[in-house]
Amino acid sequence: MRSTTLRKILPGMGTALLLAATSSAHADDPAKILKSMTDYLAGQKTMSASFDSDIEIITPELQKIQFASSGEIKMSRPDKLRVRRTGGYADVELVYDGKLISIYGNNAKSYVQADAPGTIDKMIDALQARSGTGMPGADLLLSNAFDELMATVIEGKHIGQGVVDGVECEHLAFRTPDTDWQIWIEAGAKPVPHKYVITSKTLAGAPQYTLRIKDWKTDALNADVFAFVAPAGATKVDLEGAAIAEFDELPPGTPTGAKK
Known about the structure:
Elements: H1 2-26, H2 30-42, E1 46-58, E2 64-76, E3 80-87, E4 91-96, E5 100-105, E6 110-115, H3 120-131, H4 138-141, H5 145-150, E7 155-164, E8 167-175, E9 179-186, E10 193-200, E11 208-217, E12 235-236, H6 242-247
Parallel strand pairs: 6-12
Antiparallel strand pairs: 1-2, 1-11, 2-3, 3-4, 4-5, 5-6, 7-8, 8-9, 9-10, 10-11
């Protein structure tokens, strides 16, 4: 009798405990947690980190294919940035010194340059507007990241805690009319993002973009880090040239009609 009673009671207790834990997690304000992250990042003079990214495409035959790459980011606010991305199809680097933006494609052995005086924010906007090129997690680097991230959000939830690369994080989920996105933010005094996932809701198959960020550092960076020196033998091309194409996370052989 006692054994039978325990078998009936224990599953119910587990469910009650799970619901209690979930309710507690949901009680935290996701916008407040996100704001602590964006304020922390915006308040850092210098930052560096490494990343791994995965981007999915849906072919015209409705097959889902994923492409992976890795890289590193170094920045000094308000006007210096260096990003390198290496994948199976590209090895490309962007260098911005506050006046000039340089993008070098190692595979193409070519680079492009353009005047872009101002800030990192303005440079990112100008680059995306002119070439349609995006950068991994660029919205997380902006000085007004919170406003940009929340601009079209219609719902936000604090899912609970999670562990990314061994780091305990707060797991948040947000919805917009076109996408669902999630972010895992380190718990404690250093609220940096460790994982960022964007899911498209407007395409069949719901392709995702996943970014994992690690090795966060706020140490001072030498000014030479943000000086571009063209490698020997590199050819300078127009802004629409090969180096720009290489910066896209999709390889040149992506099936025609594929959507990401």
